[in-house]
Amino acid sequence: MSDSSDPLVPGNPYADTMPVEAQLVQPKRNNVGCIVAVLGVGFFGLLVCAGLLLPAVQAAREAARRMSCSNNIKQIGLALHNYHVAYNQLPPAYTVDEDGNRLHSWRVAILPFMEQQALHQQIDLSKPWDAPENAAVASIVVPAYACPSKVGDPLMTTYVAVVDPSGMFEGAIPTKFGQVSDGLASTILVVETENENEVHWMSPEDIDLETLLERSENDSHVGGGNVLLGDGAVKFITNSIERGLLEALVTKDGGEDYTGL
User: Fold this and answer.
1) Strands (E), the chain
2) DSSP 22-46
3) Does residue 99 or residue 217 have the better pLDDT?
């Protein structure tokens, strides 16, 4: 039998006088679980997007650094050409004193042609590059000598010459472009070496032909490095380049006819 005092029973005269909350009580919903689920899905989606975008962002940044590196080497090439115009020869790989001791690098010699005349004037060219008289200059970074992809000390450079009697830099003996019978477009002037072969930008040290041919994977760029050809062009060579071709590109008269890399 129905209880007439129950406000929810039809016909109860007191139903209209009862509060709405009392007339119809709705169960409360727990939304915390839904919010946590939505946030979790959203966070997971962000992680997936970040994982997909990160390699692309890194690749874009490296491409920009590689282009900046290429511009550095082009600036070096222009300076070498302007030096040749001024002196009718390239700078020697290194200068020496009267006893044959090495003093300074070709990178020091071309400073006036790289808008670094003031820096060049501060160097005592009669003393070794690491002498106390040159310590202040040796602590200065020349931005064009620092590859933006290289980590570590910015005073150290990976832009080096290949010092070899058959190449463009024979040592203390200057070379002229007219001595290159292979053609400037087929002869290497400067290479970007591996990080393990980096040198101080003032140091009269570079690499020899055998070191160049034993290329490793420890590059500033993935898979290889830039080279400056005698005509001023900058090309990217991979570590998989044929050893014989690379050796021929270094020589002034190797007889190769190769104008593309």
Assistant:
1) 94-96, 102-105, 156-157, 159-163, 188-192, 199-200, 207-208, 224-229, 234-238
2) HHSPPPPP--HHHHHHHHHHHHHHH
3) 99
Is the pLDDT score of 55 beyond 70?
no
Of 106, 104, 113, 105, the C-alpha closest to 86 is 113
Distances (CA, A) of 183 to 32, 189, 227: 76, 12, 16
Top mean pLDDT of 93-97, 216-220, 222-226, 240-244 is at 93-97
Query: Average of pLDDT values for 29-45?
Result: 60
In contact, 162 and 206? CB cutoff 8 Å: yes
pTM: 0.76
Of 130, 197, 111, 212, residue with least CA distance to 158: 197
260: closest CA among 232, 225, 236?
236
pLDDT at 22 over 60: no
Where exactly are the structural domains of the chain?
72-250
